[in-house]
Amino acid sequence: MTMTKKNKIAVIGAGYWGKNLIRNFNDLGHLGAICDQDSQLLRKYQKQYPKIHCYQSVSEILQAPEINSVAIATPAITHGKIALRALMNGKHTFVEKPLCLNIAQGEKLKKISSKKNLVLMVGHLLLYHPAFQTLLDMVRENKLGKLRYIYSTRTNLGKIRREENALWSFAPHDISMILSLIGRLPKKVVTKGEHYLRKGVADATLTHMDFGRKLQAHIFVSWLHPYKEQKLVVVGEKAMVVFDDDSKNKSKLLAYKHKARWQGNTPVVSKAKGKLIRHSQEEPLKRECKVFINCIRKNISPPSNVNEAINVLKVLLASQKSLNQRKGGAI
Hints:
Elements: E1 8-12, H1 18-27, E2 31-35, H2 39-48, E3 53-55, H3 58-63, E4 67-72, H4 79-88, E5 92-96, H5 103-115, E6 120-123, H6 130-140, E7 147-157, H7 166-182, E8 188-194, E9 204-210, E10 216-222, E11 224-236, E12 240-244, E13 253-256, E14 259-263, E15 266-270, E16 275-277, H8 284-298, H9 306-325
Parallel strand pairs: 1-2, 1-4, 2-3, 4-5, 5-6, 7-10
Antiparallel strand pairs: 7-11, 8-9, 9-10, 11-12, 12-13, 13-16, 14-15
């Protein structure tokens, strides 16, 4: 199935994040419909986008012949079920993270999308951030040398969830970036965390991933933090790079060529001035939406395809198991 002028994308879930998908697909000329259970919200969208059809029922969207693709931005617990229905109805499907909540369901979605030759893409947004794509190129071109360790932190005061904990809400982005940089799954995952506001829903977690070959990665996430911070630190034998998504600079990448060595029994550290690395200024979500449209046109697989999504899900589930049991969980 190819994308023509008559083929449009329906956004299912028009709330907190769905509104951003609606804006971008509309700007790109591919918004075909908006679906949400909230009738009052739909009336607002109908005024804002008078030429776009609004529906309260997912079934109506899936039966609409002019809609060949959907973008799902509903609560995480519903992702797998709605994605399955969309694929079964022959729709190319974009799903906000996570793809679903268990591996069996993920494998089923993979099988159906492959059988029906449909694009299935997951919203691991930071894979499409120009700064991260530049960083990924640097790693692949060996500009950092052999990777030593990676550390990411994603903190803020809010947005607090009732069912989905901070691990599932924040960490998928960091897991997807780390797996892309390293290119393989960790051998072991250990996650520690605690709930403070609602029993059983962790507000802050620290995840340690052991990839073997002396390569480690750590992820700290919290929605009970006094300030917002979104950083990814990648340390290699040749250089160190910081991806600071909250930086006020146009460039979100800062590279350091620090050196550390032993001189006899004395450690010698040579510090170098940080250098800003240029990258595109395109909005990450717009780029992500463009990739989805392009993959449908060319019948190709996106970077955040179903295989990548299942790998992220494996790490999340191992992390949750460790969090529940308060011990490491092998994948």
